[in-house]
Amino acid sequence: MRRFAAILASLALVAVLAVGLSQALSGNVPSPKRHFDLAKAEQQLSGAPAPLASLHREASKLLPGGTKAFRARMASLKGYPVVVNKWASWCVPCRTEFPLFQSQAVTKGKKVAFLGVNAGDSTDPA
Predict the structure, then answer these.
(1) Distance from chain centroid for Cα 52
(2) Given its phi and psi angles, is residue 64 left (phi above 0), alpha (psi -120 to 50 degrees) or beta?
(3) Is the pLDDT score of 69 beyond 80?
(4) Please, how many CA atoms are within 13 Å of residue 8, restricted to the half-sphere of its CB?
(5) 19 to 12, 13, 104: CA distances (angstroms)
């Protein structure tokens, strides 16, 4: 049973990687150098439910408190789907995928929470 689950998980991972690579090679991934229009994003996200609006107001801020604060944040988002992305400025794949997360956070931000988790950056690069 465990072996079957491991094989199934491995196949799922390969499928996700294959889709990601095919999108990257086909040019469907936004350019990392694309300009982000903060005013437009704020306009699109206006009217979001209170827990998500609270999250939007703290965009681009590092929140202190570590695991305890993260768990509290997750609890405050109960009832909403949450996308968690572990990110670091030194991680090339992270920097490549960031515009995609940014775009989806604006597009789906009234229904879905998007959280970034700092993966060991100091404050300035994070």
Answers:
(1) 14
(2) beta
(3) yes
(4) 5
(5) 11, 10, 17
Q: Which residue has the tokens 């992270």?
A: 94
- How far is it, in rounded angstroms, from Cα 93 to Cα 79? 30
**Mean pLDDT for all residues in the chain:** 78
Q: What sign does the dihedral 71-101-64-121 (CA atoms) show?
A: positive
- Asked whether the beta carbons of 63 and 73 are under 8 A apart, the reply is yes
Tokens for 116, please give them: 């970034």
- How many helices (H) and strands (E) the chain has is answered by 5, 2
Cα(60)–Cα(63) distance, integer angstroms: 9
